[in-house]
Write a structure and sequence with these properties.
The protein is mostly helical and about 260 residues long. It has helices at about 1-5, 5-25, 30-50, 55-70, 80-110, 115-120, 130-145, 155-170, 175-185, 190-205, 210-220, 225-240, 245-255. Helix 3 (about 30-50) runs antiparallel to helix 4 (about 55-70), helix 4 packs antiparallel against helix 5 and helix 5 (about 80-110) runs parallel beside helix 7. The radius of gyration is 24 Å and the shape is elongated.
């Protein structure tokens, strides 16, 4: 939130969240306020861990409106202030309902194998994670879990490129948005662009072990085995108890020596 909305906006929202929580606590014995407070608390945990959907946020806005309306009579502010807060909440609700419709369109496009994706993208889903999930689902369905070059003229690659580019514009600080763009570039045969995207991803998430593993597979597939093995060695040293990088190194050596 601080990265996308700015530190002042994050601080303002944190203050608003604390104030609404205090209103809920002061009025916890009133059934309506208690229900609204409990509903917001139930949404807090998934929201903190990033599992945010437009539907739950829309409900949270309505619950917050209930608490704000309960707090209004006890405050010595002019009526236009409370009317303004109510207007802001109403506009926010409309915006979130629009976002919710964009998520429904995105889900339907994925379910239909990519048909209707242009319409879904035109609705501008605001969260990068939803776009990444949609693109990843289609990518695995179309090309399988492995990494391999694909004819650059494949229209499916262009569709994936649009999805991942939109996710990157939604959140330029999301490491996996950069790696997803890099995967598409690799499938198109542009190894330089793919490696540049993965380098950016690893800069944003230096402790993620899967990013160097994926990049090493690209290098090895591109006949740059020494660089790929060096990257795998680095990945295995990051988490010595995590066996996948070491196992991948072993498979490479087995393939090289062709054991009986």
């Amino acid at each position: 939130l601080a990265a996308t909305a700015g530190i002042p906006a994050a601080g303002l929202l944190a203050w608003l969240a604390i104030w609404i929580a205090s209103v809920a606590w002061r009025n916890r014995f009133e059934p309506l306020c208690a229900t609204a407070g409990a509903g917001l608390a139930a949404m807090a945990v998934p929201a903190l861990f990033g599992f945010i959907t437009c539907g739950t946020q829309s409900v949270a806005i309505l619950l917050s409106a209930i608490l704000v309306s309960r707090a209004a009579p006890g405050r010595g502010f002019p009526a236009f202030i409370w009317n303004g807060i109510g207007g802001i909440l109403a506009v926010s609700l409309v915006i979130h309902l629009h976002f919710a419709s964009s998520l429904v369109a995105l889900r339907d496009a994925v379910r239909d194998g990519g048909a209707g994706m242009d319409r879904a993208l035109a609705l501008r889903t605001p969260w990068a994670q939803n776009l990444l999930q949609a693109g990843d689902t289609l990518e695995h369905a179309w090309f399988g879990p492995g990494l391999a070059a694909t004819p650059a003229s494949d229209a499916r690659l262009e569709q994936l490129s649009r999805i991942y580019s939109r996710s990157l514009s939604a959140n330029p600080l999301h490491a996996f948005c950069h790696s997803a763009v890099g995967r598409v570039a690799f499938r198109k045969g542009d190894i330089a662009a793919a490696l540049a995207s993965y380098q950016e991803a690893r800069t944003l998430a230096p402790r993620d072990v899967y990013l160097p593993m994926e990049e090493s597979q690209m290098l090895i597939t591109s006949h740059r085995e020494a660089e790929g093995l060096a990257l795998l060695e680095t990945a295995s040293k990051m988490y010595p108890r995590f066996g996948e990088p070491a196992g991948l190194i072993g498979y490479i050596w087995m393939a090289r020596k062709k054991p009986a």
